[in-house]
Amino acid sequence: MSERRVAFVTGASRGIGRASSIALARKGYDVVVTARTLVEGETADGRPLPGSIASTADAVRAAGADALPLALDLTDRASIDAAVDAALERWGHVDLLLNNGIYVGPANMQLFLDLDLESVRELFTANVFHPLHLTARLLPQMLERKTGVVINMVSGAGLSDPPMPAGQGGWGFAYGASKGALHRMVGVLAVEHRGSGVRFHNLEPGFVMTEAMKLNDPDGALERFQKAAPMSVPAAVIAWLASDDAAAEHNGKTVFAQPFALEQGLHEDWR
After folding, report:
1. Which CATH number, 3.30.160.20, 3.90.640.10, 3.40.50.150, 3.40.50.720, labels domain 5-263?
2. pLDDT band at 1 (very low <50, low <70, confident <90, very high)
3. Are 225 and 265 in contact (CB under 8 A)?
């Protein structure tokens, strides 16, 4: 049984999940590093993206923490249960859950009349139903121990209409609807478990240039409209929410990472 704090991070092979895993390690968290990509060069969806749970685990260890890299596919409930069981067997508890991983597939960017209902069902399974299941698996032991943090990575797509149609600078209905559904979770949990010692936060990262974003936008067209923040910006805010007593003021609320990081002095100005 570990006396150290333990974080469970989905989508940790690259992007904000990887950056957050490293930032949490620097705050003293051991990290359960989960994603579909197990080793470098073998991406689950076949795209030429860097990153893996193995390389993230190495980076967590280099930051002075322990790491447990585990395969987890958000479309596969059995893999979620297996990862939770392995994490609890290893450390006995999880202090922080970061629901960061998302569905990767065609429904994200399909126009409404092009949507295939099976693809939409899979998207909601990965973005809503299985994060719900994962949270339900880990929350009871947090409540029993009267300590813990749940952070959901949300999106402006779940809060507002796209500026353009999908494929032209906007996003599809199914993606926005799924992120909107996830957005509602923490407020409800904060009401249901007020005074429990467990905190619940949404983190809206803003426009961040991840590896996947660079692959999708090789010419940098998106940055003509807005300068992207580095992945270290939302990671710094997540680490703060996970470790600072003042984060209790934001229980049940959405934190907008980019202005918050600047206001709190958590990151140098990248603009």
Report:
1. 3.40.50.720
2. very low
3. no
